[in-house]
Specification:
Layout lengths: L3 H8 L4 H12 L3 H10 L2 H4 L4 E6 L2 E7 L4 E6 L6 H15 L4 E6 H6 L1 H14 L12
Length: 139
């Protein structure tokens, strides 16, 4: 049975437009996103559930694990431009207001050094504490 209260908190007040945009992004994932998603969805590897293109308030994060309040972002070349870095910093600040931990990887890291990315994610998860009493709607 789904817990609506938990779902609302997991999305941090996202509206229907944000959900629609997230659905479109899930249908049009980039190659690095697809590569990482193939690994993140393997529960044997991470022993937790990740969601892809997940709405968080007015934003959509590349990957989200509610149990650990962990956001994973994959950045392409466009994120190296100064105006995009400033936007990313502001966005990260807003996401951190929800006590979310954000880790970032480049497209190249995901595509050419996937083992490093996986180890970094596993390391971060091992350092974080899972939400106490969290009931996930997919359990």
């Amino acid at each position: 049975m789904r817990s609506w209260a938990n779902e609302k908190s997991m999305f941090y007040g996202a509206d229907s437009k944000t959900f629609e945009t997230a659905a479109q992004l899930r249908r049009n994932m980039t190659l690095p996103e697809l590569i990482l998603w193939k690994r993140l969805r393997d529960r044997k590897l991470f022993k937790t559930r990740f969601r892809r293109q997940h709405p968080v308030n007015t934003f959509i994060v590349d990957f989200y694990c509610h149990e650990y309040k962990l956001v994973i972002e994959i950045d392409g070349e466009i994120h190296n431009q100064i105006e995009n870095r400033e936007y990313d910093d502001g966005r990260a600040c807003e996401l951190e207001k929800f006590d979310l931990k954000i880790i970032r990887f480049t497209n190249d890291q995901v595509m050419f050094n996937t083992a490093f990315v996986i180890k970094q994610i596993q390391k971060i998860i091992s350092e974080l504490s899972p939400l106490q009493g969290a009931v996930t709607p997919w359990a």
